[in-house]
Amino acid sequence: MKRKKIMTYILLGVAVVFILFQSFVYMSTSKTKEQPYTVLEKDGDIEIRLYPSATLATVQSKANSYDEMASPGFRALAGYIFGGNESETQIAMTSPVQMDINDSLSSMSFVMPEGYDMNNLPKPNNSQVILSKTTEQVMAAIRFSGFADDNDREKHKQELLNYLNSRGIQTKGNFKFLGYNPPYQLVGRRNEVVIEIVR
Q1: Residues 158 and 72 in one domain
Q2: Can you give the pLDDT at residue 12?
Q3: In this structure, are 123 and 177 located in the same domain?
Q4: Does the predicted TM-score (pTM) go above 0.85?
């Protein structure tokens, strides 16, 4: 009986620590600066957005799956913003992480925070990290929650594509997956599939 009581206390303690940790993670990620955009239209989980020009740090790869791209891409980009550059500058992390997985050349990108551009970003130590600037884009996006796998991404990609086709909206470029949360965040997860549209 005494052992059962001890086990109950241990389990309660673990549960409290878990809840506190997840609450801390959720509050921390909610303070992370996000890439700005303006919502032009909204229909349920689907939005048409205007994204202003942004500066990206990108890693390219011949990976043909999200899992294959995720770890090496993230390590290279995180290394750059955490001081792996010519001036050892620490650059703030932003969200979302952008992933473009296709049959030719896949990529992962971090959006550089406000105040950084091609003129003042330090040169990466890792030659795989490429700095670039995007133009203003109008994107269609669909949002979903939970831990995303390839089936989830494909399902929402098709849902977004069907929606756009039904409205006669043309797309250009590849679909991208946007991830807003670290892998150890279990609650409040946000994922999106986006694609540029012709306006």
Answers
A1: yes
A2: 54
A3: yes
A4: no
Model pLDDT, residue 169: 95
Helix (H) or strand (E) holding 78: helix 66-81
Q: What is the DSSP letter of 125?
A: S
User: Do 161 and 91 lie in a common domain?
Assistant: yes
Same domain, 7 and 87: no
Pick the closest to residue 33 from 105, 140, 115, 153 (CA basis).
115
Residue 1 to residues 7, 8, 13, 98, Cα–Cα distance (Å): 10, 11, 19, 53
Mean pLDDT by 10 residues, the chain (199 residues): 58 45 43 89 96 96 86 94 96 94 90 94 96 97 90 94 96 94 74 95
Domain hosting 25: range is: 1-31
- Both tokens of 174, joined, read 């590849």
64 & 129 share domain: yes
Return the closest-CA partner of residue 80 out of 32, 132, 130.
130
Q: In 3D, which of 83, 65, 85, 95 has the Cα closest to residue 130?
A: 85
